[in-house]
Amino acid sequence: MSESASSSRTHSSVWSHFTLLEEEGKAQCNYFGTKYKRSGGSTTTLHTHLKNKHSRSFWEFLVKWIVCDDQPFVVVECEYLRKLFRLLNPNAKSLSADTIHNDIMKSFKDEKNKIQEILQEQLTFLIKDELES
Ligand SMILES: [Zn+2]
């Protein structure tokens, strides 16, 4: 009885991403090392962590790889890359080149605006300094 109870405690699919730290009564993420207190048999917190933290990181790393390695946007439409993603996460949705292109262009514009604002500010300071001296 207690044996089946303890095995069902780590039966959920989230446990392929977490290690149960019996003595601490915590679950630790295998990737980020974040620890979560185990409250009963619930895996809600762990699911939330995967949904938020891992999804965000997946997207961030994918975008960085495409940009830093000069990959074409259509690389995300490669049949084998899609199979690889689905192997790691059976719920993974297929990405399109347009989605990744739009996201990268939006990030690029945001960063460009930030740099423009910083430069504008610096330039204003320099001119003001020049006029006052
Ligand atoms: Zn994690």
UniProtKB/TrEMBL annotation:
Superkingdom to which the source organism belongs: Eukaryota
One annotated Gene Ontology cellular component of this protein: nucleus
Keywords of the record: Metal-binding, Nucleus, Transcription, Transcription regulation, Zinc, Zinc-finger
Compartments, as annotated in UniProt: Nucleus
MF GO annotations: DNA binding; zinc ion binding
Protein name, UniProt field: BED-type domain-containing protein
Cross-referenced Pfam families: zf-BED (PF02892)
Listed InterPro entries: Znf_BED (IPR003656), ZnF_BED_domain_contain (IPR052035), Znf_C2H2_sf (IPR036236)
GO BP annotations, alphabetical order: post-embryonic development
UniProt organism field: Rhizophagus irregularis
